[in-house]
Amino acid sequence: MRIDIWSDLVCPWCWIGKHRFQRALALLGDDAPAIEVHWHPFLLDPDADATPVPLREAYAAKFGSEARAAELLAQTQGTARAEGLPMDFDRGQMRVTTLPGHRLMWLAAREGDADAVGEALFRAHFAEGRNLADPEVLVTAGAEGGLPEARVRAMLDSDEGVAEVQAALGRAQAMGIRAVPTFVVDGRHGIQGAHPPEALAEALRKLAPPPAAGDGAACGPEGCEA
Question: Which domains does the chain have, with CATH numbers?
Answer without folding.
Answer: 2-225 (3.40.30.10)
